[in-house]
Design brief:
The complex is a heterodimer. Chain A has four helices and two strands, in the order H-H-H-H-E-E. Chain A is an all-alpha fold. Chain B is elongated. The chains are: A mainly alpha, B mainly alpha. At the A-B interface, helix 1, helix 2, helix 3 and helix 4 of A face helix 1, helix 2, helix 3 and helix 4 of B. The complex binds protoporphyrin IX containing FE (HEM) (2 copies). One protoporphyrin IX containing FE sits at the interface of chains A and B.
């Protein structure tokens, strides 16, 4: 006989899962429902953001041959593309992290295994989201090190 | 030996395989994105560091990889919209199979167009 295990994501007291089957043992409020909704809302927006990103970066003009430092400088000189990339970064990372969380819940059976896998997942997601955000907003088209302009930068004429 | 459960509506049918595909493509895209934000962050190191690493994306082997990545994204995106329609549209569950065929047809068209354009740019003489 196949035994069907209780879901590891779910809320005590929601009526969906009897408390004795809940592995985490405490209430998670409406978190799982919000997460479920977020996957769907972010998905719709991500279609536009990612298809737009791929089209502009790979399909027009010289496609991938056009991508270099100057290409990024050109895009991020425009707040429109800064916010496009910011929204794409946050939504894709939160969507992907939540999706991988579900998968860990599905396959990792030991409590300790799930705990550590999710710890690594959240740490990685945090670092990438913060790093990506900083990169977009601290981007400098004319980087200077010790008073010397780095080659390849785009500096205003002196 | 456990015997195979007799035919169910889900197990081994298109619904299950589209879910498997959705799950695998989701994970692939996630890991790509982690690396992608790291490579983009090189613009903060130096113009030359960024341009050097991006140069790696321009070789023919990587062009195949990028094409595979886009194949995964286009499937995940269209199938994701199908999942959303199943959940929110009142006839969604009834038409889930037809919608899967629509997803596959759209996937062939959109991914096919992308692959032709991208591969001819990336592999074409330069
Ligand atoms: C292009 C637009 C996208 C759409 C329309 C979309 C849609 C969805 C939907 C509706 C789900 C929930 C499936 C369910 O609850 O059964 C989902 C799951 C998932 N998505 Fe996306 N997604 C998109 C982009 C992405 C991106 C960019 C990533 C990675 C960074 C990603 C990674 C995942 C993962 C890992 C899951 C979990 C799969 C599972 O539980 O089996 N998705 N996606
Ligand atoms: C092989 C295909 C891809 C190429 C060649 C590419 C290229 C680039 C380039 C040149 C940038 C710099 C800024 C800009 O152009 O807007 C960038 C940034 C970015 N891309 Fe992509 N991209 C690809 C696929 C993707 C996919 C599939 C996703 C989403 C899952 C994505 C998400 C992002 C994000 C979030 C940023 C901003 C990074 C940051 O905050 O530092 N890209 N990409």
């Amino acid at each position: 006989m196949t035994t069907i295990e209780s879901p590891r994501s779910g809320k005590i007291g929601s009526g969906k899962i009897a408390p004795k089957y809940n592995r985490s043992g405490h209430s998670r409020g409406n978190f799982e429902m919000i997460a479920w909704l977020f996957m769907r809302l972010s998905g719709v927006v991500l279609v536009v953001l990612i298809f737009g990103h791929l089209f502009v970066n790979l399909m027009v003009g010289q496609g991938i041959h056009a991508i270099d430092f100057g290409f990024v400088a050109g895009k991020w000189a425009d707040p429109f593309w800064q916010f496009w990339d910011l929204a794409m970064l946050w939504l894709a990372m939160l969507h992907g992290t939540n999706g991988v969380r579900t998968i860990i819940n599905d396959y990792a059976e030991r409590d300790a295994t799930r705990f550590w896998l999710k710890g690594v997942l959240y740490a990685a997601a945090f670092v990438i989201i913060i790093l990506g955000t900083l990169v977009i907003f601290t981007f400098n088209p004319c980087p200077v090190v010790n008073g010397v302009q780095l080659p390849g930068g785009f500096c205003p004429a002196p | 030996m456990p015997t195979k459960p007799a035919g169910t509506l889900y197990r081994g049918r298109e619904g299950m395989w589209s879910w498997v595909g959705h799950r695998i493509t989701g994970v692939v895209i996630f890991f790509f994105l982690l690396v992608h934000v790291l490579d983009t962050s090189l613009v903060r190191v130096s113009p030359e560091a960024y341009t050097a690493v991006i140069g790696a994306y321009k070789n023919p082997l990587m062009a195949i990889g990028e094409t595979g990545l886009v194949a995964a994204i286009v499937f995940h995106a269209f199938n994701g919209l199908r999942v959303i329609a199943i959940d929110f549209w009142k006839k969604g569950a009834k038409y889930q199979r037809q919608m899967l065929w629509t997803v596959l047809i759209l996937w062939v068209v959109v991914f096919g167009a992308f692959a032709v354009r991208h591969l001819s740019l990336a592999l074409g003489g330069h």
